Structure formats: C-alpha cells, structure tokens
User: Fold this.
Amino acid sequence: MTVPAEVREHWQEARTSARNDGLVPALTLLSRALSPGVAPRGPRGHAVVPRELLGEYAEFGDDEDGDGGRDPVPGLAVLGPAGGDRAPAGPDAHDWGTGLAWLRLGASERLREACLAYLAGRQVEGSSLLLQQLVKGALADVLIDHLEIEGVLDDLAEGPDDSPPAPARPLDGPALARLQAQITQADRALLRLLGAYGFTAEGPGRAAYASELLADVYCGWPGPAGDTAQNVDSRKGNV
Assistant:
C-alpha cells in the first residue's frame, strides 16, 4: 500500500497549521481533507473533533453536542462511541494516524517556541533562565527529538532531490505508536520547563493535553508508561 502525494501534502499542511495557528485550526484542516463529512473515530469508537465541524457530520445532524463532557480545549469536542449503525466509515487509519503525527509535531514545535519565549523573559539572579545549563540541555534534548521525528516523517513525504514525491508506504502501527510516544515525551519535557505556568488557564498545558489525547484516542502506544484509548473517558474530565 502506498500513500498518494495529495495525502502527504495534507500531512505537511497540518504540521504548518499547528505550528503557526494552533491545534484546533490544524485539526479542522486535516479533518476536512482526510475525513470530509465523517467524524474520524479511533479503534474503540471515540473521536476528538473540532466542535465547528459537528454540524457537517451526517451521523449527528444539527443538534449534536458531543457527549456532554468538558472540551479538552475551547473549540474541541470529545465524542463517545456511536451507537448502532450511526457511525459511517471514516478515513484510512494509517493516513489519519500519520497525519496526526505531523499535526502533533507542529503543535509540539509551537509549544517549544512558546517555552523559549517564556523562559527568555524569566530572570534568575540577574540572568535569563535560557542561560541555565540544565535548561539549555533539556531544550536541546527536545530539539533532537523534534529533528528525529521530522526525519522519520520526511521519509514518508519527500522524493529524492527536487523530483515529485515518490510513492510512500505508511508507518506500521507499532512504529507510529513509538513516534506518538516520542512527541508526547517532548511535550511533557517542555511543560516541566514551564513549571506551573504550563498548567494555568492562559498557559499551553491544555493544548499539550489535547495533543496527547489525540494520540490516546487514535493510536495509543505500548508500555506501562503510556495511556491507551480505553482511558479517554476518565482522562477528559481531568482538565
């Protein structure tokens, strides 16, 4: 199975949108491109979708209001599994999962930029926090993670030299899960650098949480440190 060039373009656009505009606009763009008119559902039937798209999903009609839980971030709705035959077929799971990895990379890069701006304005003993050795080391580790993730994803999207993108094969499930886990670890490292600010109402913690929730719902990852989609109901009420 190969991935069409058009789909790979949508992946890259989602990353750019997440980095420049934020997670919800990027998810709106990716959803309309890869899952028009259908709520993309994870393997356990849950969905995380821009609230503005609910009226476009035929399975809901005009009065769908999610599942009644709090939005993980403003403008984002969490949907429980659809009952009976309500949920039509959604996007290809590999295309959607890889697109979310691109999107989450862009959101993580946006978080890194916010972290740099915040730390640059914080002073400790007359010098910027950015000059602290431990802070510089932690930021360097995150940058390395981002470059590694970008390298893996670029192999799926770019052709050699200046030629058009060659046919690409999607990541398999375990490889995609490891990539999603690496993005989550980078986000958590950045939030630790932000301290309490990362979890305030005006801080970036909610967007990072929503990004992690996307991985939980649509991909999940192996190992005791990672959550899986089965935990979404308990997690979404904790923000």
Remarks:
- Helices lie at 5-20, 23-34, 93-120, 133-157, 173-194, 205-218, 232-235.
- Confidence is low (pLDDT under 50) at residues 159-167, 221-239.
- The radius of gyration is 18 Å.
